Amino acid sequence: MQNQRWSEDQKFEQQPAPSFGQRREAAARKFRQGMDSAIHEIAAQLDEFPWYRLRMLIAEQLDARGIALDVSSASATEVPTPQSEGV
Fold this sequence. Notes:
Layout: H1 2-12, H2 21-46, H3 51-64
C-alpha cells in the first residue's frame, strides 16, 4: 500500500527524483528480501511435507463422492488408494 501511495505521489512531483525515492527503494528491497526468505523456507519445508497423507485424504474425500483419483505418475513407493483396495 505504501508503494502505491509513493507511486501516486511521484505523479505529482515534477522533480526527476522524488524526495521519497530512496525510502521507496529501501521498502521494495526489504519486501523482496522478505519474499525470497519466505519462498526459501517454504521450499525447504516441502521436503518434509507429508505428501502421502495429503494424497490419502484427497483420495478418501473423492471416494466418498464417488470420484476416482487418477494418478498420472506413480513412484516406486506408491501405496494403493482406498478405492483401488476395494474399500
